[in-house]
Design goal:
The protein is mainly beta. 5% of the residues lie in helices and 51% in strands. It has a domain at 378-457. Strand 21 and strand 22 form a beta hairpin.
Length: 457
């Protein structure tokens, strides 16, 4: 655990404990979950995972004007590679590459106060701005954990951020303001892990004697000028809609090049892949809305983002075709541009226990020369069918996603059997196809079957 992270958590805990005396008629509730998961990788040359055992504990203390809320997760993560090299138990707010196991993470830890129509919240928080599933364009406040992110629901990908938030409620309108005092970066698996995916650097060799050691980025100083701020106005009616403004660091991953280095050590080839995460501030103006027509609900959102950075095609990064020991300078790989992200989704109830969801999303990059970038736009089509059987004892979900620009796709399915309100067991499967630089194709070796046992209380 870093010194800054430890100090922040101590400060939050002390503040919340001191405020707990104000809970005169408080009610304390708790819930939790234990999850045992095992995975069978379908390709022999894919990275295998040991089983995972993780838990979740949610606590809420509610008084007349104050509320304390915490959401803590921890356990043993089977996706972590060689966690013995990392002694930290607590997930950090200042590292991109983290493979803690066992681990402990405060997903949420916040104190809120209500005074009339005003709600104030302080602590580690996760926000849900936007309307779409999977990739909501206006949901910019929380970075993501990209370990297993394509097979996890969006709420499990989000990393809680230390923040101050306020909501002012009216009859038809409400107004939100959020301040995040410093950058919390997204998290990536390390190259030896299953969900790192394929890249130009990692594709240079598949030998087990090759070790990739990416560098941690230098994060921006923790000053007021480097904070993030967001404002939103929401209207409630037959059509719910909102307008939002965000100015802060882009949570979407983008990289800058350093130097590609190949060295020999103890009979192994050690490679610094020559790129590190890069962080840039953006300004985003977004709008979203949702409405219901009988059994059909429609959701849509769009956001224009100024000064967003993108990486050029990987074949232009400058990697040598036949690298030997030494250092190699790489080409500059990014440039800023404006972008428009938009999408529309619909949910339709086919019958009482069947819900079909379809969604289309596009990212359109302005002033994007075809000589440097593979596509001027990216499109993702999603479809999910959720069906309950045997009086909701069996829950099944089938999903499919397709990216027409690259011809890559993902298909996944799972089935759960509910033994009781507390126990359930499930089977799942996922498969990927497509070229190595596409959204889904970079995980083409990650086809897997899984089994899970969950106890909830």
């Amino acid at each position: 655990m870093s010194r800054h992270t430890g100090r922040l958590l101590v400060f939050l805990l002390l503040g919340m404990l001191s405020a707990s005396s104000t809970f005169a008629d408080d009610s304390l509730t708790s819930s939790g979950q234990l999850r045992l998961r095992g995975v069978d990788a379908r390709y022999d040359d894919s990275v295998q995972e040991p089983p995972s055992l993780t838990g979740r504990l949610v606590l809420d203390a509610i008084g007349s004007a104050w509320r304390f809320h915490s959401w803590i997760e921890g356990g043993w993560d089977g996706t972590a590679h060689d966690p013995a090299q990392h002694s930290s138990l607590l997930k950090s707010f200042n590292k991109v590459y983290q493979n803690n196991s066992p681990f402990l993470e405060f997903k949420e830890l916040a104190l809120s106060h209500t005074a009339g129509n005003l709600d104030l919240r302080m602590g580690i928080q996760r926000f849900a701005w936007g309307r779409l599933d999977e990739y909501p364009p206006n949901d910019l406040l929380n970075p993501w954990d990209y370990t297993r992110f394509l097979v996890k629901p969006i709420e499990d990908r989000k990393i809680g951020v230390p923040s101050l938030a306020a909501t002012l409620r009216g009859s038809d309108w409400s107004y939100d303001a959020v301040w995040i005092p410093f950058l919390v970066p997204y998290r990536f698996p390390v190259p030896a892990e299953r969900w790192f995916g394929r890249s130009a650097a990692s594709a240079l060799s598949r030998s087990p004697t090759v070790e990739f050691t990416p560098r941690e980025p230098d994060l921006p100083p923790r000053t007021i000028a480097n904070g993030n701020i967001a404002l939103r106005a929401r209207h409630t009616g037959d059509i719910d809609w909102a307008v939002s403004l965000y100015h802060g660091y882009d949570p979407r991953p983008v990289f800058k090049t350093t130097t590609f280095v190949v060295t020999q050590h103890a009979g192994r080839t050690v490679i610094d892949p020559g790129y590190v995460p890069d962080f840039h501030k953006i300004t985003a103006l977004g709008v979203d809305g949702a409405g219901i027509l009988g059994d059909l609900s429609i959701r849509a959102e769009a956001v224009y983002i100024a000064n967003r950075h993108f990486n050029i095609r990987e074949e232009l990064w400058g990697y040598p075709l036949f690298p030997r020991s030494g250092s190699y300078s790489l080409n500059p790989i990014g440039a800023a541009s404006g972008s428009l992200d938009y999408g529309v989704g619909a949910d339709y109830r086919l019958f009482e226990e069947a819900l079909l969801t379809v969604q289309l999303q596009q990212t359109f990059i302005l002033d994007r020369p075809e000589t440097l970038y593979a596509r001027q736009r990216e499109t993702v089509l999603w479809a999910h069918l959720r069906v309950g059987l045997l009086n909701q004892k069996v829950e099944t979900t089938v999903g499919f996603a397709y990216n027409p620009e690259h011809g890559d796709s993902m298909a996944k399915a799972n089935v759960w059997y509910l033994f009781s309100d507390a126990w359930k067991a499930g089977l799942s499967g996922v498969t990927f196809t497509g070229p190595s630089q596409s959204i889904f194709g970079r995980y083409a070796k990650n086809d897997e079957l899984g089994a899970e046992l969950v106890y909830s209380w």
